[in-house]
Design brief:
The protein has 299 residues and is α+β, with helices and mostly antiparallel strands. It contains twelve helices and eight strands.
């Protein structure tokens, strides 16, 4: 059976970037702006505050894990931060190991933090299906995975890049597993937690080439058209056909980069002809399938 969450993570193509071990003592504050990249943190000891611009401050304590699939600006600080504008104290004590705050003060926080990137050029669509913030408490598996990423980053072992990519994929899936359910914000996780919508989402992912209409999806879900439409939009965050078209185009982009013939791609993603697919792709992406394939070769 197709697993939509696994497919989304696979298409995102996480790419390793930075992984650091951080300790802090006294008053300290770290501010990052205009990153536009995924950020994760696992607190090993102590506690700190994290505030993502536009959100409420989060208290992070030992055993906590935070993942932000697309963060642009945030701050992390001691529970009593220094005054804004104070000179930041940050010292790299060894490669990949940083000390924040007063170097002579007792360490009050120990955390592993990292950034990665998503290699997919359709990441905006895929990230929109995930929660804006994932905050998990007491999941040892997540801490273990971050520890393995940190260790792998700091050593030049054979096939390191491949291992890091796989570890990042597993970390993302484990984080999403830990936050699935009706309490999740609108998106794929919440849709998959709905017993009537989950089979529909799986069918969209498993059979993107079949004819898809709101009426057929509603019938599959044993709901009226209006009830299904409103429930899907409320739980998943987008209208059913918008989701189906977005997913089809994400798959089409992947196939175009793999040098598959346009006619075959059209059939695989549910269009009756290559010309119909080309019109829909150009409308959705802003360029023709041929131009996209030439600009985005595999590799």
């Amino acid at each position: 059976m197709t697993d939509p969450i696994a497919e989304v993570v696979s298409l995102l193509k996480p790419i390793p970037s930075i992984s650091k071990l951080v300790t802090g003592g006294g008053r300290w504050l770290v501010e990052r702006t205009e990153l536009g990249s995924p950020f994760y943190c696992a607190v090993v000891e102590g506690c700190c505050r994290m505030t993502i611009t536009g959100g409420e401050p989060m208290l992070l304590t030992a055993g906590d894990f935070v993942l932000v699939p697309e963060v642009f600006s945030f701050t992390m600080s001691s529970l009593e931060p220094p005054h804004r504008g104070a000179l930041a104290q940050r010292l790299e004590t060894s490669p990949g190991v940083f000390r924040l705050g007063d170097p002579d003060a007792p360490a009050e926080i120990k955390a592993m933090v990292g950034h990665c990137a998503f290699g997919s050029d359709d990441k905006a669509l895929l990230v929109s299906l995930l929660p804006e913030v994932i905050h998990v408490r007491g999941e040892d598996r997540l801490t273990m995975l971050v520890r393995m990423i940190n260790d792998e980053t700091r050593h030049d072992r054979t096939a390191r890049e491949m291992v890091l990519r796989r570890l990042l994929e597993v970390m993302l899936i484990e984080a999403l597993r830990s936050t699935s359910g009706t309490a999740a914000p609108p998106g794929l996780l919440r849709g998959m937690a709905d017993p009537q919508l989950a089979p529909t989402l799986r069918r969209i992912h498993e059979h993107p080439g079949r004819s898809i209409t709101v009426e057929a999806l509603a019938q599959d879900s044993a709901m009226s058209r209006s009830t299904f439409f409103e429930r899907f939009r409320r739980e998943v965050g987008v209208a059913p056909m918008e989701y189906a078209t977005g997913w089809r185009m994400a798959l089409a982009k992947q196939l175009l980069r793999s040098d598959v013939a346009t006619a075959e791609i059209a059939q695989r993603v549910g269009y009756g002809s290559a010309s119909a697919f080309s019109v829909a792709f150009s409308r959705h992406v802003g360029t023709s399938p041929g131009a996209y394939a030439r600009s985005n070769p595999l590799g």
